[in-house]
């Protein structure tokens, strides 16, 4: 349950009370630490396998798919994404509730809020799909999960940026202005990195040039990092809120 610092649950038996800023940081740190750990282990112990491509040319960095497909990297990544997925679904619901409150009388924004919710759920589901079905197991399923993740992620960031543009037009709160500016910047960075990654991936497959796949991998990392940073802006959006888990008092049990 999300609410302000002093909610109406004081009379209930409190189990967990966590500032939403801490909740956001922990949620983003799980995939961030997991990805960095997988990349480090792949470079240290599985360098030749993880950097190999069908072209056979020299490559210096593994793609994310290659970095999370071997053992123990596969289990580290699956554990981190599995633990982070439930908070991500909760965060999607929190944003939808927030938008409904802000745009209660504005039908276009409410419809866009629904689209944003759907995209957020699809993004998280696509991430789970590409995580639990690695490229070395069932490539087509992994590829489709990646497509769902990237497509829904871009659409989610676009719709979110538009909603916060509407909020920013009538807001005087420093946190909301800062959040909108960073959302817009990170969305543009993410689009640019996606285009660069797609370009280098296609060029590698077409010409098999040395080092081109490394550039693809580098921009792929930046796509994921900018996506994580975009979700991190919830730090400003819910800065005064808390995540509360409580059991109802005896007189509320029917």
From TrEMBL:
**Does the keyword field hold Membrane?**
yes
Query: Which positions, given as ranges, span the membrane?
Result: 20-45, 110-133, 145-164, 185-201, 213-236
Source species, domain of life: Eukaryota
Cellular component per GO, a single term: endoplasmic reticulum membrane
Question: InterPro entries in the record, alphabetically?
Answer: CWH43_N, PGAP2
What membrane topology was assigned to this protein in its record?
A: Multi-pass membrane protein
- Where is the major localization of this protein? Golgi
* Gene Ontology terms: biological process: GPI anchor biosynthetic process
Q: Which residues form the CWH43-like N-terminal domain?
A: 20-240
Pfam family of the protein (one): Frag1
Q: Does the keyword Transmembrane helix apply?
A: yes
Keywords from the named record: Golgi apparatus, GPI-anchor biosynthesis, Membrane, Transmembrane, Transmembrane helix
State its location(s).
Answer: Golgi apparatus membrane
Q: Family per UniProt?
A: Belongs to the PGAP2 family.
Name the job this protein performs. Involved in the fatty acid remodeling steps of GPI-anchor maturation where the unsaturated acyl chain at sn-2 of inositol phosphate is replaced by a saturated stearoyl chain. May catalyze the second step of the fatty acid remodeling, by reacylating a lyso-GPI intermediate at sn-2 of inositol phosphate by a saturated chain. The fatty acid remodeling steps is critical for the integration of GPI-APs into lipid rafts.
This chain belongs to which protein, by name?
Answer: Acyltransferase PGAP2
Q: Which organism is it from?
A: Scomber scombrus
| Lineage of the species this protein comes from | Eukaryota, Metazoa, Chordata, Craniata, Vertebrata
């Amino acid at each position: 349950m999300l609410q302000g610092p002093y909610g109406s649950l004081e009379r209930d038996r409190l189990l967990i009370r966590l500032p939403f800023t801490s909740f956001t940081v922990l949620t983003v740190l799980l995939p961030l630490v997991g990805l960095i750990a997988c990349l480090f282990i792949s470079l240290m112990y599985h360098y030749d396998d993880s950097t190999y491509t069908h072209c056979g040319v020299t490559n210096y960095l593994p793609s994310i798919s290659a970095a999370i497909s071997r053992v123990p990297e596969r289990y580290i990544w699956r554990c981190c994404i599995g633990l982070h997925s439930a908070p991500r679904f909760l965060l999607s619901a929190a944003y939808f509730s927030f938008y409904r409150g802000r745009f209660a009388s504005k039908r276009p924004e409410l419809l866009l809020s629904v689209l944003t919710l759907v995209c957020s759920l699809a993004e998280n589901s696509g991430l789970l799909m590409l995580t639990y079905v690695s490229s070395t197991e069932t490539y087509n399923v992994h590829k489709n999960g990646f497509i769902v993740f990237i497509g829904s992620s871009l659409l989610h960031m676009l719709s979110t940026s538009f909603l916060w543009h509407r909020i920013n037009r009538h807001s005087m709160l420093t946190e909301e202005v800062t959040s909108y500016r960073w959302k817009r910047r990170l969305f543009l960075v993410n689009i640019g990195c996606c285009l660069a990654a797609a370009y280098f991936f296609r060029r590698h497959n077409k010409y098999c040039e040395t080092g081109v796949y490394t550039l693809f991998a580098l921009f792929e990392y930046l796509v994921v990092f900018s996506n994580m940073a975009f979700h991190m802006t919830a730090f400003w959006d819910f800065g005064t809120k808390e995540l509360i888990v409580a059991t109802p008092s005896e007189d509320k049990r029917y």
